[in-house]
Amino acid sequence: MKLFHSIQSRITLTVLSFGLLMILFNNWRNQDWLVDRRLARLEQEATETGSRLAGLLQHLSRKQQQRAAELEMAYVSLSPDVDLGLVCNKEGVVTCATHMQWQQMDVLKTPLADEWRRHASVLQTMVPVFAWNAEKTSLVAMVPFFETYESTSRAAVLIRYDATLAIEDVREEAWQESLRQAGVLLSLCLLLWYALYEFITRRVRRVVEILRSASSKDGILMTLEGNDELSMISEEFTGAVTKLRRAENMVLEAAEQERRKIGKDLHDDLCQRLSAIKMKAGVVQGMLPEKDGKIAALVGQMAEDLSESTVIARSMAWGLAPVGIENHGLKDALENVLRFAEKSYMVKCSLDYSDLSPALTGSSQELLFRIAQELVVNACKHSKPDVINITVRMEDSCAVLSVIHDGTPFAESAETQGRGMGLILMSQRLRTLSATLERTVESGERDFSIAIVRIPLKNP
């Protein structure tokens, strides 16, 4: 999922995974530690209970208080860890037990027979024994004592403790503690997720919006609020884009100056030369005698061709250097472009114009003229239209330029793959005007390609 590809989710999942691993490791270590501690406590309890019970039974047997001894054994059996227990003399007769039916029975006939055989030597050494089985799930405590004042009257307390329940309780307690830790970890991860969203993800998305806005045709520059690293990146990026746009405007202005220079040179030099040659051709035609009529006709044709070439050259010069847009207006400049298209590409052209001089400055009108010129020339070159219409109007709070023709639609692949200098300059002019360019195709009896330029107007 896309959600788990974000830095926010990766950091949170990493912390969550590491925390769960630490909780599992801590659970495994705590279980061993808690089990060892619980077994040590059980062994200490067996030692204390066995020693206390042996001393107490010795006292009660000497006073022949059998009933009191049975009560003591009953109290011992109340412990949840005590499995079985009995008191047996050296002859192997059970004198007292946690189960009343064992009294006066042979100890070898009770469930504790194996433990008695294993530790019967205690009656000889008179040293208490506390022994675990191999799995450490059962503890046997056998504590000897003297029933009477004679050294031969020996007996022993035999108690078997079952540690299974205690171990299960310890492990359950360890798992409950792990679950509590997991709950705390999950809460902290949710808090981390929210903190990352608030301080990083949301602000990174805002930075991305700023980058996209700066790279769009609208060209609106913004900076991220705050004083953190992302704000510094945003400020640096805005400064870099500002410098880049300033450089683009300088390149655009240099291109415009070069256009004006070339247009002026065409008008002042080439057009004048063509006019002079045309006049000379007329003079030569008049000097030829009537018998050279064919030569005179050919010279006349040369004069006409020179006249048409002069008109085209002047149109090109005026297109390169539209001197006096501020004086003659954008309408005259656009009409000259259309006249050039009609003469050079044999296209029928029309203009629907609404005055934009109150809304656009002279430099903005010149940029709009260049955009219209590029759209018209591109349409004539690549689309081979029969009809071109230019519309200039106000629409809401925008100045709108529409170029409509019936030629082949301008393919996006060609636009993207072959981005020439004209298209690059047009994109720069669009950014300078904060304008947008939309291309659509309207189908009917004939398909019409429509290019719409929208220039947002600033509030006064």
UniProtKB/TrEMBL annotation:
Keyword Phosphoprotein: yes
Principal location: membrane
SUPFAM superfamilies in the cross-refs: ATPase domain of HSP90 chaperone/DNA topoisomerase II/histidine kinase
A single GO molecular function term of this UniProt record: kinase activity
Alphabetic keyword roster: ATP-binding, Kinase, Nucleotide-binding, Phosphoprotein, Transferase, Two-component regulatory system
Chain ranges of the HAMP domain: 198-249
Catalytic activities: ATP + protein L-histidine = ADP + protein N-phospho-L-histidine
Pfam families: HATPase_c, HisKA_3
Compartment(s): Membrane
The keyword Ligase is annotated on this UniProt entry: no
EC number from the UniProt entry: 2.7.13.3
Enzyme class: transferase
Name of the molecule in the record: histidine kinase
